[in-house]
Amino acid sequence: MLPADLKPDKFNGYPPEARKLATNYIAALQRLPLSFLPSLLREVIEYDFKFPVERKAVERELANLASLSPEQTKEWFQGFSQIRLSTQLENADWVNAPAQYVEQFSAYLWSTHQQDAFRAAAVGYAERLHAVAPPEPPPMPRLGITVVGQGVETYDAPLFRKLRAHGVYFNHVNPENGLQFLLDGVAARAQAHPAPYAHWYIDGGQETRYDPALTCVSYHALEPARAALSAKMRAEIERPGMGPEALRSLMARMRPEDLGLNAMPGKTSDPIMERFQLKVLTEGSGTQIFATTFAQWTAREALRRAQPLTLLVRFAPRQRQKPMNEMISDSTRPVELDPVGSLVDGDFGAYYNWLNQQRLPGAEQSRFLVWFEGHIEAVAIGPSWPRGTQSNAAADMKQLLS
Amino acid sequence: MNSRSQFGLTGRAGRFSMDAVNPREIARQLAFTRRDFLRSAAGVALGSTLLHSPIALAGAAMKKRKVVVITFGGGARDQETFAPEGQENIPHLMREMIPQSTFFTQVVNRGILGHYVATASLATGAYETFNNFAAVSPEHPTVFEYFRKDLHRPASDAWVIAPSNGFNRIGESSSRSYGPGLGARVILPKHLLTAATGGSGGKDYEHLLRDNYETPFYTPELSGNEFELQQLAMMLKLSVDDFKAHALTLSSPDELSVYIARQLMRQVAPSLLWITMHDIDIAHAGAYSLYIDGIKRTDRLCAELWKTIQTEPEYAGNTTLFVLPDFGRDSDEDSGGNGFQHHRTGDALSRTTWLMAMGAGVREGIVYDRPTESTDLVPTLGSMMGFSAALAQGKPIPELL
Fold it and tell me: Which of A76, A281, A321, A333 is the best mutation test for B, with the most CBs of B within 10 A?
């Protein structure tokens, strides 16, 4: 089927809000090339489970597409129209399974050496859309905080090397009650500017007590879901004929209830967060194995998707990668942690948290703080902090957050 | 969600400039930067295309010539290797190997960035297009087939040591003119280990013998068999007990591969030996410290292999070593990826890698920044060793001939 053949009933399999959205804009969708449309439908079909910022972006994009004349549409999508497609792709069920289609399409682009052409078309489209429908600036300057090094007593190598150039490196921070102060600061922002999914706390270990106004995700709380996922994967892998791609497809079809995410103890049902956590575990490579990867990827996805005004990420020790001699000699040892390796992971993860925050609207006013938990080192970045400088003066968290 | 994130392109114009769209320019700039790092840190000189290798004068010695190729699965980025802040991770490459090598800073891979298909493309000199995760032979003839057919070499003269289950077909193509019976012998060290340990080890054993970091949950079947145990005993002159005992002293799959390589060089001394390493690709698990550990280990293992080449009588003085990653990793600046973790964006950094050649017939301390392609390796080996890579897409690299 080609986009021009789209009919409203083709969207009957979509969740209610997504169906309504797609049928409202069906005329615009019919004009789009097949090399483009499924990637848009991949967003539309998830509309019911999207964060508010994402919903607005999808609505803005559809409204723009609907406003284009046929000539403008042709011009906007010229690059996409030149992508050659296979009959197999044309016959695939790109309406009801757009994510799977995009995955197959991506493999096809690689194998036909059209990846660069597609990439150029996508970037061109994104630039145009950004120009005519720019994202809204945040209602307050964003604040990102990353806390690293939990469980590390001493560490002699230089920290925050990637971030120092962008702000002030402090080496006499008072660490007393530091984490609590940061959590209180984040909570105060959430109270002062309440909005759904606007203020986050992500913990790579067990979450500490937090204000209910915060959206919280933790590695520890998801332990039952991680275990359920591992068990399912092991069972699937043992089936004859199961390979990586079949496994990916299987994970893409999973629902939150398959991993018990809809019935987490002490949590109120929240389909958007349940879906978010499912995707973190099934789409994020390594998030199931390493706590540090979980924290970094969850933060990346939260920033990319929810675009929070406040984000506190606390890294915790991950399990140690076992060397081969341990693999052979003993498989029953309890999980051993690697706090120093995790500090290195967290240090680089902090850099990625900052980079991802800076990709959002309002970057010029955004602030960022990274702190070595329980220690005296931190870097503060923001419009009021001179770049690439060092402060040897005593400082407390209040000053760093000011 | 904005439309960039729809394509994995969430970068804002301005701070994260979309100038990055021009991959050729990025690759060129990357090559120049890499060249400058090497010139300042490793003391190498900028090469001219007029310089040719002295190998052409060594025709009389061609018959004894041996070639060892080391490829890395996944590669590492400049900021963790050749850039000033990364040089601490590759002390052996920087101080010992690069000063003795001819180094190409701009080797572009225009193919599919999956490890098996990309390594197969390196081995055929043609961009293979098969499914990266399928257990299939390359479509084009491999370097091993060209070498064996043209030079009438026995099967024992061309070997591959490969990291992963999926690589077991890399030694021989499905090409009608070449193919069956003309390929290399392939050793999968982890298969050997599985065979030696009787396939036991429990869940931890399976998990940690996982050899495909591109798919976090996929644990390919690793089953040792009688043939592999025979390889141990007959070819490598190793008893199962000695092998197991030595394996206990090793810390990674690549160490196991290098151990097997050294044993093979000592016992069989093949003229064409291809070793594919994979430890760096732990980066897919997202733990930066483990990625750095992988780089440091690979650096050390490359130096150990070079030392073995220089000290083993069958190899010393007549062997050319090639070291190259199959491709790179995503840059931090491309918001479609997640930096070092993957190689999914197809950006210029993930496509632009390098090649180091050293040993017999290669000039020392020269760096070239002109573009070459990863498919140029096989035709270059052909020109060096005296076979024709007739169906390869690449071209011989004149600076090495």
Answer: A321
User: Three-state SS for B229?
Assistant: helix
CA distance readout (Å), A45 to A27, A28, A49, B154: 17, 16, 9, 58
Provide the shortest C-alpha distance from residue A147 to chain B (in Å). Answer: 16
Residue type, B297: R
Quick one: which of B298, B239, B236, B247 has its CA closest to B269? B236
pLDDT in tens, B40-52: 777 788 786 555 5
8 Å CB contact of B12 and A363: yes
The model's pTM is 0.90
d(CA A202, CA A284) in angstroms, rounded, equals 15
A35 touches B at CB < 8 Å: no
Q: Are B360 and B319 in contact (CB under 8 A)?
A: yes
Query: What is the torsional sign of CA A290, A293, A299, A304?
Result: negative
What are the tens digits of pLDDT across the range B167-195? 888 999 999 999 789 999 999 888 788 77
- pLDDT (0 to 100) of residue A222: 96
Query: What count of other Cβ atoms lies within 10 Å of the Cβ of residue A191?
Result: 11
Could A325 and B23 be called an inter-chain contact, meaning their C-beta atoms sit closer than 8 Å?
Answer: no
Q: Write out pLDDT tens, residues B248-275.
A: 788 888 999 999 999 999 999 999 999 9
Three-class DSSP category at A369: strand
Contact yes or no for A22/A41 (Cβ under 8 A): yes
For A255, the token pair is 């629902």
Short-list B176, B182, B124, CA closest to B152: B182
The contacts of residue B56 (CB under 8 Å, 6+ apart) are B401
Q: Measured between alpha carbons, how far is residue B395 from residues A170, B109, B322 in Å?
A: 54, 14, 16
> What does the alpha-carbon distance between residue B25 and residue A277 come to, in Å, rounded to a whole number?
39
DSSP A42-107: HHHTTGGGS-HHHHHHHHHHHHHHHHS-HHHHHHHTHHHHTS---HHHHHS-TTT-HHHHHHHHHH
Which tokens hold the place of B159?
A: 């070997």
